């Protein structure tokens, strides 16, 4: 059973798995708090094929700070967690 990480982490089991893989606390929390993070996909457009607004909306959804001042390239980098 996954440890309760408090109200700031919505999916404790996924958070722990991501931390075990070596992700930072911030990145693991951001991913585990995304409502559709655990769903299988493979059908999404590549970041480079999306508009800046689409990237901004995704950054907002996962809680990336400073997104309003980022260029398209910076949004892509932030979304990839670099």
Descriptive account of the structure:
There is one protein chain. It is built from 4 helices and no strands. By secondary structure, it is an all-alpha fold. The chain folds into 2 domains: 41 residues, no CATH class; 39 residues, no CATH class.
Q: What general form does the structure show?
A: elongated
- Topology, number of strands: 0
What is the mean predicted local confidence, pLDDT?
81
Amount of helix = 40-55%
* Number of spatially distinct domains: 2
Distance between the termini: 31 Å
Q: How would a crystallographer describe the biggest sheet?
A: none
Low-confidence stretches: none
**Radius of gyration of CA atoms, rounded to a whole number:** 13 Å
- Count helical runs: 4
Derived structural class: mainly alpha
Tell me the β content: under 5%
Succession of helices and strands? HHHH
Pfam families: DUF7218 (PF23855), Rho_N (PF07498)
GO biological process, one term: DNA-templated transcription termination
Protein name: Rho termination factor
InterPro entries: DUF7218 (IPR055642), Rho-like_N (IPR011112), Rho_N_sf (IPR036269)
Q: What tags apply to this protein structure?
A:
82 residues; Rho_N_sf; DUF7218; 0% strand; 2 domains; elongated; single chain; Rho-like_N; mainly alpha
Summed up, what is this model?
It contains 4 helices and no strands. With 82 residues, the protein is an all-alpha fold.
Task: Please render the helix and strand layout as text.
Blueprint: H1 12-20, H2 25-32, H3 52-62, H4 72-79
Protein name: Rho termination factor
Pfam families: DUF7218, Rho_N
Domain Rho termination factor-like N-terminal: 51-79
